[in-house]
Design goal:
This protein is α/β, with parallel strands linked by helices. It has 7 helices and 10 strands. Helix 3 runs parallel beside helix 4 and helix 6 (183-189) packs parallel to helix 7. It starts with a helix and ends with a strand. InterPro entries: SAM-dependent_MTases_sf (IPR029063).
Length: 246
């Protein structure tokens, strides 16, 4: 736990600079080192970009900001999903996080479509399922606890996760990748065909130009490229939308 927290803190300091880092220090320390050791006093929800996420209410939460509403959470990735994915589409998401991308996608595809989510972290697998149910889309979101490609920066315990080779992913209309640096291997090994939304993670070794080059080699053209929300330029985080060249 300590190594993970220290490593994350160092990454934030490098990426954001000392001023922004210090502004986040108290809630960061509370959330990662203190909060889970406090008694649970009930359940609550937070709103991330129009998606309700269930969470425990802990003692001291009313006094220390820990996970308040985030109206612009993953803004660029979510906008790419809304602007491109349509009713009836079948979608595969690698890196489900807390379920925001899955719920947003479910609202786009409606009951005529389907969503398969691969998530490496055990706790987040359950969270995605709970978030989908809370937002009334549980019936069309299928979540698999699995590592796809390289295990580079899993946010949580991956114990028990099965390994899914990228070549074994479903053949959807859309492939959405927000997988913390694993996107390079996945894009190299998939069978070209689905349209793609991918967030690059340069600070984890997956730089935008490299990902664009891989997409080109796989027969894709870039439709749009926009810096990801909440990251500095040196992070190398860009949301790309790509389609096969016909």
């Amino acid at each position: 736990m300590g190594d993970t927290v220290v490593g994350t803190a160092v990454r934030h300091l490098y990426r954001e600079g000392p001023k922004a880092f210090l502004e986040r220090l108290i809630p960061f320390v509370y959330n990662n080192l203190i909060r889970t050791r406090m008694p649970v006093t009930g359940r609550t929800t937070v709103n991330y970009n129009e998606v309700e996420i269930p969470t425990d209410q802990h003692y001291l939460d009313d006094y220390v900001p820990f996970a308040g509403d985030r109206p612009h959470y993953e803004k660029v990735l979510i906008e790419a999903i809304i602007e491109n994915i349509r009713e009836g589409d079948n979608v595969c998401i690698v890196g489900g996080g807390n379920g925001v991308s899955a719920v947003t996608t479910a609202r786009s595809v409606s009951t005529a479509g389907s969503i398969t989510v691969f998530e490496a972290a055990k706790s987040r697998t359950k969270l995605i399922e709970d978030t989908a149910v809370l937002n009334d889309v549980g019936g069309i979101v299928d979540v698999t606890h699995s590592i796809v490609g390289e295990n580079i920066d899993v946010w949580g315990e991956e114990s028990g996760a099965k390994i899914t080779p990228p070549s074994d992913l479903p053949d959807p209309d859309w492939l959405v990748l927000d997988c913390q640096g694993s996107e390079k291997q996945i894009l190299r090994e998939i069978t070209p065909g689905p349209k793609i939304i991918v967030e690059t993670h340069g600070f984890l070794g997956s730089w935008p130009d490299e990902v664009k080059s891989i997409l080109g080699d796989q027969g894709y053209r870039i439709i749009s490229s926009e810096p990801a929300h909440g990251h500095s330029k040196r992070d190398g985080c860009v949301v790309l939308v790509a389609a096969p060249v016909r």
